[in-house]
From TrEMBL:
Coiled coil: none
Gene Ontology CC annotations of this record: cytoplasm
Chief localization: cytoplasm
Binding site for Fe cation: 89, 110, 124
Cofactor binding comment, as recorded: Binds 1 zinc ion per subunit. Binds 1 Mn(2+) or Fe(2+) ion per subunit.
Similarity comment text for this entry: Belongs to the Fur family.
Gene Ontology MF terms: DNA-binding transcription factor activity; transcription cis-regulatory region binding; zinc ion binding
Record PANTHER family: FERRIC UPTAKE REGULATION PROTEIN, ZINC UPTAKE REGULATION PROTEIN
Name of the featured protein: Transcriptional repressor
GO biological process, one term: regulation of secondary metabolite biosynthetic process
Length: 136
């Protein structure tokens, strides 16, 4: 997803284009990795010194709820990335050092569903963590 697509998606949902939202999205453009929330906050506050943590977090969660950003937790801290361009249902390998991701086309839910007969699964999230070839 690129900046224009993300902004257009927000407009279609009735959200205003703000300089802060646009700056948040710019941080993610051309990145293929998750970025720690504290890193995002630090960068935003350089451009908008008076902006509060709450405002930044609200925007990060809004962008996640609208499926423009994806989020995960690494080392007990929230990390975000721009939505993946890979089409269809997929999961990710996430490097625990640099945060880079690699799409995984396989979904383990078929095997899991066999073990949970009679259960009503509403959703799932599957991520694999480790070191990418560069960090290994």
């Amino acid at each position: 997803m690129n900046l224009e697509t993300a902004i257009q998606k927000l407009k279609e949902k009735g959200y205003k284009k703000t300089r802060q939202r646009e700056r948040i999205l710019e941080i993610f453009v051309n990145q293929d990795q998750y970025i720690a929330a504290k890193t995002i906050i630090k960068e935003i506050q350089e451009d908008f010194p008076g902006v509060s943590y709450d405002t930044i977090y609200r925007n990060l969660y809004l962008l996640t709820d609208e499926e423009i950003l994806e989020s995960t937790e690494l080392s007990g801290e929230k990390h975000f990335r721009l939505g993946c361009d890979t089409h269809g249902h997929h999961h990710h390998f996430i490097c625990t050092d640099c945060g880079k991701t690699k799409p995984i086309d396989f979904c383990p839910m078929e095997s899991i569903n066999e073990n949970l007969q009679g259960y009503d699964i509403e959703n799932h999230k599957f991520e694999i963590y480790g070191k990418c070839p560069v960090c290994h």
